[in-house]
Amino acid sequence: MREMISPTQRPWLPHEHPGWKDYTLLFLQKLKREVLLRKPFISHNSEMAELFAKNHLSFKEKYEQMAVYFIDSFFYYSRFQFCRAYLPGWPSEQGSESDAIEATARTLPLMAAWIHYQMTNQGKLDSYGKCVRQALKQAFICGTNPEHPGYWGKIKDYDQRICECCDIALALWLVRNTVWKSYSASEQERILCWLQGVNNCKTVDNNWHLFIVLTQQVVLALSGKGENSEQRYARVKEFYVGEGWFRDGANGNFDYYNSWAFHYLLFWIDRINPDFDHQFITQSCAEFAKTFRYFFTPCGFPFFGRSISYRLAAPVALMANAIQSGRADGQLKRIISTLTHFFILHGAVQHGVITQGLFQADRRLMDGYSGSGSSLWSLRTLILMLYSGTECGLWDTDEAPLEIETASFDFTIDAISARVTGIKETQEVIVTFAHDQYPDVPFKDGKLIMQGWWPIVLESVSGRSTRPKNNLLRKGVTTFSSRLNLYL
């Protein structure tokens, strides 16, 4: 394991240290949200669980309906001409307006991928596809208009909008041949100007660098001009330790973020600009996939790190590798299928949203930076499936057994000093790190802690998260099982 990555001091983040003026603004945003929030999507409360319980439906039919379900949910909860979506759930530290923009940004790529899917498979858009296209058109043009009530706002240093701008840019690139071409020159210029707001923004020194790199590549692809943050990308490559793994910042963890954050964003950067760093991006993803496929079982996955609620995105790197190699195998199909079935049949989707937890909503498992729409990043696997499931043959291949269903195994990922053990008889996969980054943390503190009653009251009144930090890696835990016993 490569140990030395030049560290940087973590910046002081305003949203982590709010004053009374901030709380006043957050409270007003909360009141606005309560006025605009629709009643929960009651009619669709158990629709996803019922869908995935139907054995007679094909893999393809289930995921097509899943995509429509979340697009319909967005239509239901969205306001201001699809610029914001006020979803039921607990707030983040950034407040209700940031959460509403986040929920929109994380759904737009799904909508754009759905249009791509229809155009690929039918050669044209049906009536539903045209509705989705129109919603995208309105969102891009209204969200970047300072005179519109749904305006996404000016992007600032360490701003959550840096993160969401990346998804907005990706969605725009996906519909570059339809929605983008329908805008006038002045409208295109306004959208590009808003996206370029990320260029000089400061970020935390971790995977956030990739948000700016991807956004800039979209601007370059759409306009032929713009900036290119070579230093940011070079910094991300400094985090690479081998075998497909990145450390999430110089002092960060080795996290399942690797799959659905690092490799997802790198995949799209490569698709947008194949000349960017093709060999490294595809090779690192392929190396990651070689061992990561062993992590999956029919009933769980050894989650470690933060953002546990983004669980459905765990197979993203495997899907990206299948697209890059031009062929999806049956094992990948089973990984995606079993993971989705397992969580959805245990209540991971309710009221049109992905719950804030592993199964039901769970305050212990929601990071303070995550809001009501954050878990929508779970849709990243589905986005890749819509984008290239046909191209790589995913829909037509037959499922094949998982590694744990075939035989027991025991090996080490040297790059991260992690031992991966699979026991066929119990269908359990265990990941054990051979190093403890936090040796000073008392062993008794290596557990999830509950949010107290007073912080819950403050969160409810202020509209700002007061939830505790529960990243077990940072609490000194070194062993994680697919049985998920640490989170139950």
Would you give an account of this structure?
It contains 17 helices and ten strands. The chain is globular, with a radius of gyration of 21 Å. The chain is an alpha+beta fold and 488 residues long. The protein has helices at 20-36, 47-52, 59-77, 96-105, 108-122, 127-143, 160-174, 185-195, 209-223, 230-238, 257-272, 278-292, 316-325, 330-344, 380-388, 403-406, 453-462, and strands at residues 78-79, 84-85, 240-242, 245-246, 349-350, 353-354, 409-413, 418-423, 428-433, 479-481. Helix 5 runs parallel beside helix 7 (160-174) and helix 12 (278-292) crosses helix 13. It has a four-stranded antiparallel sheet with strand order 7-8-9-10, with no helix packed on it. It has a two-stranded antiparallel sheet with strand order 1-2. A two-stranded antiparallel ribbon has the order 3-4.
What does this entry show, briefly?
By secondary structure, the protein is an alpha+beta fold. The chain has helices at 20-36, 47-52, 59-77, 96-105, 108-122, 127-143, 160-174, 185-195, 209-223, 230-238, 257-272, 278-292, 316-325, 330-344, 380-388, 403-406, 453-462, and strands at residues 78-79, 84-85, 240-242, 245-246, 349-350, 353-354, 409-413, 418-423, 428-433, 479-481. The protein is globular and about 60 Å long.
